[in-house]
Amino acid sequence: MEKIIIVGAGLSGATIARLLAESGNEVIVIDKRENIGGNAYDYVDKNGITVQPYGPHIFHTSDKQVFDFLSKFTEWKKYEHRVLAKVRKDKLVPVPFNLTALFSLYPKEKAERIKETLISEIGEGKKVPILQLKKHQSEEIRKFADFVYKNIFYIYTLKQWGFKPEQLGEAVMNRVPVYLSEEDRYFTDEFQFMPAEGFSAMISNILRHPKIKLKLKTDAKKELTLSDGQIYFGGKPLDGTLIYTGCVDELFDYKYGVLPYRSLKFKFETIKKPSYQPAAVVNYTTSHKYTRISEFSKFTCEQKENTVIVKEYSKPFKKGKNIPYYPIPISKNYEHYKKYEEEAKQYKNLYLLGRLANYKYINMDVAVKNAMLLYEEITGDTVE
Ligand code: FAD
Ligand code: UDP
Hints:
Blueprint: E1 3-7, H1 11-22, E2 26-30, E3 43-44, E4 50-51, E5 59-61, H2 64-71, E6 76-78, E7 83-88, E8 91-95, H3 99-105, H4 108-121, E9 127-128, H5 130-133, H6 139-161, H7 165-168, H8 170-173, E10 178-179, E11 191-195, H9 199-207, E12 212-215, H10 220-223, E13 224-227, E14 230-233, E15 236-237, E16 241-244, H11 248-251, E17 261-271, E18 281-284, E19 292-295, H12 297-300, E20 307-316, E21 326-327, H13 331-345, E22 350-352, H14 354-357, H15 364-379
Parallel strand pairs: 1-2, 1-16, 2-12, 7-18, 16-22
Antiparallel strand pairs: 3-4, 5-11, 6-11, 7-8, 9-10, 13-14, 14-15, 17-20, 17-21, 18-19, 19-20
Helix pairs in contact: 1-9, 1-15, 3-4
The structure holds flavin-adenine dinucleotide and uridine-5'-diphosphate.
């Protein structure tokens, strides 16, 4: 069977590795980090709390196929994510902004009036993207939308991306709509869980297969050369398949320049009390340099004597200095990315996969789904 090299032991790399190994292929998975799991990596720290050094991850999906696939590798703990936004010093309201937030921030009578208009004009229970709400024909709704925009989206988005919400558009802003209900869960997907033993354990189980060989602490770039449609691995022409889940600009030696990404700086703190804040995540939507504070024990119901929080600061990505976390989804960057995508097409045995290589702002369930689709493309088989 064919030799397959997969760069990246994150969820994308692990899923495709497993599917290909199960269908009889010899697979080598390479990652430059000392741990598997990519950004979803977690571990139990000295306080007995599961922490996620590359940022807080919560699993949610409406895709049963993805859920069933992952369920072969983990038990689950029920967890429904709720987020509060600190809009003023003394005021925390639910995000997505909902009717509870409306009544918490407006005088009662005015809130009643706005609620009535929203429901009669748009419909009870609807979820509306903020940029759409801002363009509504009703002046009252537009004013309300401006208020929500100012208090929830504008500053947070500038901090997170260095761009205004309008510059980013729907791919980003539609992720967190305004709820015309009292729904206070961040996600409304059918399946919302945390893996019972953590993401690392789940991904490690995915990778545990006799046909998968794992090589950590190995920078694939040092082994790989791509030239004139031929991939060389370890100096020899690769007579198999390369699936790459790292940054595509790096793969091609930045031939068309460095792609823009956002990086993050995490400041972890151990707090000497069992609980720090009233929700797992508090977003700082009008103040502070950090975007949000996450409290890990609240994701996993692991309350202990101490609690661990992380403050998240968003930064521009600087090659060689920090980690590229988020592709920046604006059209100029997609145009830039396309040059690399075209270049990749010259290599018949090269496939780009995952958040970095596809330059797409995707969640974990989509990472798994895309790996399944790639498996089907490569093998012609369907994933059960
Ligand atoms: P990654 O996890 O980035 O894995 C890529 C791997 O490739 C890395 O391990 C890297 O070391 C390796 N690699 C790169 N280049 C090389 C090289 N040259 N040689 C060897 N190895 C290399 N999704 C959700 O569903 N829910 C959430 O709550 C959520 N929260 C998030 C929070 C943050 C802060 C971030 C950044 C992302 C979040 N996501 C969330 C998205 C989620 O992280 C991704 O969808 C998913 O992890 C993508 O997996 P991946 O394998 O494509 O990429
Ligand atoms: N957002 C915001 N205020 C909030 C929450 C989200 O402005 O309180 C915007 C912001 O631009 C953010 C985007 O909505 O990047 C998507 O938020 P999400 O929580 O989905 O981002 P994630 O942390 O999962 O990448």
